[in-house]
Amino acid sequence: MHWIRGLLSSRWAVDGAALAAALAPVLLASDLPPDARLSHIALRTAAVPAITAAVLIARRLPAVAAATPAVLAVAAAGSLYTDQLAVAGILLAYLLGRRTAGRRAVVLLAACLGAVASAQATWPEVTARDWFQLGTTALLVTVLPWTVGQLVHQHARLLRAGWNLAEQLEREQERVADQVRLRERARIATDMHDSLGHELSLFAVRAATLQVDAGISDEGRRAAADLRRAASDATDRLREIIGMLRDDGDTALLQPAGVPVEELVRRAAASGVEVTLDDRVGELPTDPPVPDATARAARRVVQEGLTNATRHALGRPVRVTLSRDADHLFVRVANDLPEPAPESPRGYGLIGLDERVRLAGGRLGAGPTDGEFAVCARLPLQNPVAPAPPSDALRSRHAEADARRALLRGLAGTFWPPAVIALLLALLYLADGGWA
Predict the structure, then answer these.
(1) DSSP category for residue 78
(2) Phi-psi region of 214 (alpha: psi -120 to 50; beta: other; left: phi over 0)
(3) Closest to 377 (Cα-Cα) out of 367, 362, 390
(4) % helix / strand / coil in the chain, to the nearest 5?
(5) How many other C-beta atoms can be found within 10 angstroms of the C-beta atom of residue 148?
(6) Do 143 and 30 sit in the same domain of this protein?
(7) Is residue 52 part of a domain?
(8) Domain limits at 42?
(9) Sheet (strand 318-324) strand order
(10) Residue 196 burial (CB < 10 Å; 0-12/13-18/19+)?
(11) Do 10 and 145 sit in the same domain of this protein?
């Protein structure tokens, strides 16, 4: 039963059902307008392979697929609506709206309608009434199914936004619990300060005693022994308390610090990530060294950028770029956006990264741009530098309000194309005297 359920939910099953629904009228219907250029047998012979190809390419080229039956109907019969091709046209127009979004959806719809208009122009002596008839039919057969597909697409996006909001609230609860644990560990750190203060003060007193002692006597040797024991006790207690403060899954204290960016990139490449490094730092012998605080922040930016890329755009190439000028180090980690582009990440990794960069005196930016998602940081090369204010782009936003705004934008983009077409048809009708 599991394999049957998997087969029914696969893309091949969906495409097979769509192909069967589109081809059934082609094989069964036979009526055509009297002035049609093709007989129903010739139209059937041309339509079967054309619609089969359109269904197969509908996922990658939805506009071409939607235009195929429409252009074939207009070119062969002079009308967008024919019994043979109407179902295929409606179905593929719906899929065009269902599988595209935003400006791309409107552009592809316009391209589809432009192809239909070009097919209509091949007929001789096309009148304004013919264009009006074509427009009204396109509104019902192409634009209306596209609008329904867009509404279904918007509904699916709203559902995903709801699930994302639920996951974010769950993460928020976990974060509150983590903050409680961090506060307790901060209290432990206070206890560490109080308990080690006395030993460390004795350490300083005994060291001062050794400094003013003119010769090393037996008393001096005993003081040195006491000093070693006190230092050893303080070190052991420090290690014990720091071990209590360490997160359960944190291995930072067990690994060497200061892993260079080149090593981070090498490890990512070894794990299967397609990553390249363009390191333009230190190309000139006169370039001063990068301060430690800036280098640590740069490593953290690269680490978080690689983590985001592997989490949200697995399989896409990642580009890491390091450059500098006289005053700043520039770090950029960019990856190509997948199709469809995911929602903007709302985790706390970028917020924590922004705090790390801000405390180093730099500025952080993150977001999609020009078909890629980029994490960019500008870090100072002089120390000390006052911390920069928090980045506006990374401040927390209300997820529900964002989802509502995205829904309103989507609805506006869905309904204005049919409204514009209806207005143009009304103007065409009035301009020609209403065919009274």
Answers:
(1) S
(2) alpha
(3) 362
(4) 65, 10, 25
(5) 16
(6) yes
(7) yes
(8) 2-165+411-435
(9) 275-279, 318-324, 328-336, 372-380, 363-369
(10) middle
(11) yes
Pair 310, 417 in one domain: no
pTM higher than the cut 0.85: no
124: tokens are 């001789």
Give the HSE-up count for residue 175: Cα atoms under 13 Å, Cβ half-sphere: 11
Q: pLDDT (tens digit, 9 = 90+) per residue, 25-35? A: 888 877 777 77
In a domain, 181, yes or no: no
pLDDT tens per residue, range 100-123: 887 888 888 888 888 888 888 888
Q: Does residue 403 belong to any structural domain of this protein?
A: no
Within a domain: 159:
yes
What tens digit of pLDDT does each residue of 189-231 get?
656 655 565 565 556 556 556 655 666 677 776 776 677 667 6
CA-to-CA dists, residue 174 to 54, 170, 398, angstroms: 48, 6, 18
Q: What is the pLDDT of residue 188?
A: 62
Burial of 142 per CB tally in 10 Å (0-12, 13-18, 19+): buried
Residue 31 burial by Cβ neighbours in a 10 Å radius (0-12, 13-18, 19+): exposed
Instruction: Round the average pLDDT of the chain to a whole number and report it.
Output: 76
